[in-house]
Structures are given as structure tokens and as C-alpha cells.
Amino acid sequence: MNDLTGNSYKFFYKLLAASIFLTSIFLSVQTVKSQEKQISGYSYKETVLNADATAEGLPIIVGLHWSGSTPEEFENYLKDFTKPVRIILVQAPYAHKSGYSFFVRQPKDYYQLPADEKMETLLREGEKLSKFIEEITAHYKPKVKPIIIGASQGGDLSYVIGIRYNHLISLSCPLLATMDERIINSLAMKNSAPINIFHGTADPIVNIELAKKHTKSLKKNGFKAKLHKYKNIKHDIPDAMKADYVKLISRILSAAER
After folding, report:
1. Is 141 left (phi over 0), alpha (psi -120 to 50) or beta?
2. How, if at all, do strands 99-101 and 94-96 pair?
3. Number of C-alpha atoms within 13 angstroms, CB side, residue 86?
């Protein structure tokens, strides 16, 4: 082997070693920014966007996935924020299909329960989630109250938090969701957190008429409620819906920080 060839090999191996070193640093940073943790009986995934993971006072968005899903799957719908934010992706407590459910599905299926028992279950799970939000707030100490957003089943609980535990949050965003309207109680707070409902007009699982009814009932009982409708959209989150709630959440957080 001549000197030129030997030097070329030495350069190559140094370059390879440097590449491996830099890759390991990059991966370690990513790991710091996205961690799985547990508080108040819930496992959750924490992801910090546009800031260092150790930053203090970051606004918090609590995300609730749909039935049979996972925090990682719902995270794909909460990646478009351009300002610093801490995303708390809650893992539902009950195993279901290839993911998890916020309501028990076996041996009794929540969706097959009598109306009264179903409402009691909804309120019980909502109360558990409210304790989680309280502890998350105390733990991370955001400058503004958390925002909650959930899809389908996670949206059902977003309704509960927005109605029964309105004082804990800045905004509630139920997506593709429904609720038992008997849980609505009149709110005596002038500055209550708004509830923004996002729904497709062609949803075959939760009819748009239910979303319209919920919006009307909430307004009647003193809540700041608004319905965002998406023409010909079924039980899904289209890009237009995602763009709208990202814009809304960003605006709420910016206004609250002033």
C-alpha cells in the first residue's frame, strides 16, 4: 500500500468516526426532547417544540388520542406549532386493539352500557384526567393554563374537562366528539375558557347534528362555544382542520402570555 492510499484510508476512518460521533449527539438531543413519563396514574409522552426541553414556563398542550390509538399516533397532528410549546400526549389507561382506550372495553364495553352508567363512567374518567392536569400544571409550572385537545374518544373527555373543569385550562378543543349533555352545568365565570368544536359534516360515527346541538347547549349555559365545520369530511382530521386548530391554539397562547 503506498502512502497516498494509506492516507486516504486514514482520512476515511476519521470521517466515519466523526460522523458516528455527531449522529450519537443528535440522537441524544432528540431523546431529551421526547420522553415517556408518568404522573397521577397516567403514562404520557412529553415533546418540546421550538425550545430546549429544560426551558421553564412553556405553554402546555395536553393531547388525547382516539380509541385504539397511541400518543405517538396523535402526535402527528400536533407537530405544526412554530412557537415554543410543551406537548403532553396522554396514553389512555386501558389496552384496546393495537393501542389504548380511555374507557373500559372489557369485560363490559363502555359503549354498550346503560345511559346512566355510561355518564357516570364518563364523569369518573373526566375527574381522573382533571387530577392529571392539575399535577401536570404544578409540575411544569406553565405561564398560562394548559390547553386540551382530543380526537373522537379523547374529544369526549375534552368536552368533560372544558365543561366540568373549565378553571384548569385556557381552551378546550374536542375533535370529532360527542358527550352526554346532562353533564353540562351553568358556568358562573365571566372569563371562562372557550370550547371550540371541530367536526366533519359527513361524519358517520358522530353526526354533525350532535355537534350543533352541543354548541347550542353550551352557549345557552354560559360557555363560550364555537363550532368549526368541514364540508364532506367524515370521522377524520383533514389538513384544513389541523391548520385551523393550530392557528387558534397559537393565538390563544400568544394572547394569554401578554
Report:
1. left
2. antiparallel
3. 26
Measured at the CA of 49, the angle between CA 47 and CA 50, to 5 degrees, comes to 155
Torsion of CA 114, 160, 188, 132, to 10 degrees: 130
For residue 157, give the C-alpha cell. Answer: 373527555
User: CATH number of the domain at 40-257, please?
Assistant: 3.40.50.1820
Q: What is the pTM of this model?
A: 0.85
Q: What pLDDT, on the 0 to 100 scale, is given for residue 109?
A: 96
Q: Which residues contact 220 (CB under 8 A, 6 or more apart)?
A: none
Q: Which neighbouring-strand residues pair with 89?
A: 45, 63
Helix (H, G, I), strand (E, B) or coil at 40: coil
Number of C-alpha atoms within 13 angstroms, CB side, residue 34?
A: 11
* 124 or 17, greater pLDDT: 124
The end-to-end CA distance of the chain, in Å, is 69
